[in-house]
Design brief:
Strand content: 15-25%
Order of helices and strands: HHHHHHHHHEEEEEEEHEHEEHEHE
CATH topology of the largest domain: Four Helix Bundle (Hemerythrin (Met), subunit A)
Distance between the termini: 24 Å
Number of strands: 12
Shape: elongated
Largest sheet: 6 strands, antiparallel
Helix content: 40-55%
Structural class: alpha/beta
Number of helices: 13
Strand order of the largest sheet: 4-3-6-1-2-5
Number of domains: 3
């Protein structure tokens, strides 16, 4: 399935070039000029499919994982910028003249292209560094949506009125088809799907404090509906609709409950930003729009894993907790080691429940807490989770061990590097990165 989707993407993005080749269209311009035009055609194919990649289609994200799809969405967006930067340079050098770049006396549709390129560059800069620019996630999302519409429309208008290769009716029909696909994907993601979710909002049935700054919020579907099937460790998108003047924003959070529990679905959320600082003010009876599940950070998707090493840092425990709970609920016959790193002892979430599962028979779980800033009286592992601790605590493992890592990005990178230096094959390491 993954191969077929990849092939489909390549065919669609390259379809303008394939049409030009199939129609055997002749050009009186230089080769460099025609190559520059080809850059623009390829870039338009990429831009046209950007909303499709970001539209959360289950059939699209399932083979790769949502985080991988979004990273690809970002990378090809940057690649499209380079193609479009090369487009006017190649045309100017290839025969159109440097006035194309320097003269203000240009047709309106050329100016549409220039403005669209500037907007695309701005779009990429904001998407990659919105945190550095001081934008909140919600501010970035709104800017992303507005610029996306302007870029897609500008690219269509510029190419429709500018390119000589657009003369054959087949090329016009292809351009209309690509633009229609873009509009449909955008409308589905921003209009149709939200309206569908609004018809069946989930209700908050529990708000439990796990630590001094971590809360678990439990949700139940409307009466008569059942919770959808999901894998332990997956995540969902939630839009909390709460009483008072609390903000209404959509966020992605890991599902911390076990799929074996059909009474509710929960997320465990840390107070870490403007919006999440209010999570403890959520009340029973509040509603939420819920869209999921997504992701491949799930032990059930890797049946080749026979025993497990879970490595969590801080709130990264949530998907791992979902997996451990599911192992308990299904009485999974497996060996599991959890290395759980926190700054202080009071930051440990699910401590009592983990101890209870550890004392049970299935799974055969061993939990090791690692505290980087221990207070007096702490007798467990202390300091940072480094290679010495990984080597000593993990010990010798079989080649059927799955290593599941979920921690802040810096720690995740270090742990993966150290596991690789210990001889762990990269294909045995499971992780997920939220780059939304």
């Amino acid at each position: 399935m993954g191969f077929m989707l990849t092939l489909f993407y390549a065919v669609v993005t390259l379809s303008p070039l394939l049409f030009v080749a199939a129609l055997r269209m002749k050009s009186e311009m230089t080769v460099l000029h025609d190559v520059a035009t080809g850059f623009a055609f390829a870039a338009y194919g990429i831009i046209a499919l950007q909303p499709v990649l970001a539209s959360r289609w289950k059939w699209l994200e399932r083979p790769f994982g949502f985080d991988a799809v979004i990273r690809f969405h970002q990378y090809v967006g940057v690649f499209a910028v380079f193609l479009l930067l090369a487009h006017p340079l190649g045309m100017a050098y290839g025969g159109a003249g440097w006035g194309l770049l320097t003269s203000l006396n240009q047709p309106w549709y050329v100016w549409v292209g220039k403005v669209t390129l500037l907007l695309l560059i701005l779009h990429v800069i904001i998407s990659l560094w919105y945190g550095t620019l001081g934008l909140t996630f919600e501010q970035w999302r709104r800017t992303h949506n507005v610029l996306g519409v302007l870029i897609l429309t500008g690219a269509f208008v510029h190419s429709w009125f500018t390119a000589y290769d657009m003369d054959p009716i087949a090329m016009r029909l292809l351009w209309l088809a690509l633009f229609a696909l873009t509009i449909f994907a955008y409308a589905h993601h921003k209009v149709l799907k939200p309206r569908q979710l609004e018809r069946s909002p989930y209700k908050v049935i529990g708000v439990d404090q796990e630590t001094h700054n971590v809360w678990t919020v439990k949700f139940a579907p409307p009466n008569g509906q059942r919770i959808y099937d999901y894998h332990p460790g997956q995540f969902h998108f939630l839009t909390l609709q709460r009483s008072g003047e609390l903000p209404v924003e959509e966020h992605h959070w890991t599902i911390s409950s076990s799929p074996a529990n059909k009474d509710f679905i929960s997320s465990t959320i840390k107070e870490s930003g403007d919006f999440t600082a209010t999570i403890g003010q959520t009340r029973i009876g509040d509603t939420a729009l819920e869209e999921g599940p997504f992701g491949r950070f799930c032990y059930t998707m890797y049946p080749e894993d026979k025993d497990f090493v879970f490595i969590a840092g801080g709130i990264g425990i949530t998907p791992i907790m979902s997996m451990i709970r599911h192992m308990r609920d299904t009485a999974k016959e497996a060996e599991a080691l959890l290395l759980y790193a926190n700054r202080t002892e009071r930051d440990i979430a699910f401590r009592s429940e983990l101890a209870e599962i550890e004392s049970g028979a299935k799974p055969r779980l061993r939990v090791i807490h690692i505290i980087s800033s221990p207070e007096a009286g702490w007798s467990g592992e202390s300091g940072h989770l480094d290679r010495e601790k990984l080597t000593r605590l993990i010990g010798q493992r079989s080649d059927q061990t799955g290593y599941y890592v979920c921690a802040p990005p810096g720690l995740t990178k270090i742990v993966i590097r150290d596991l690789r230096s210990m001889g762990v094959s990269y294909c045995r390491i499971r992780t997920e990165q939220f780059l939304l």
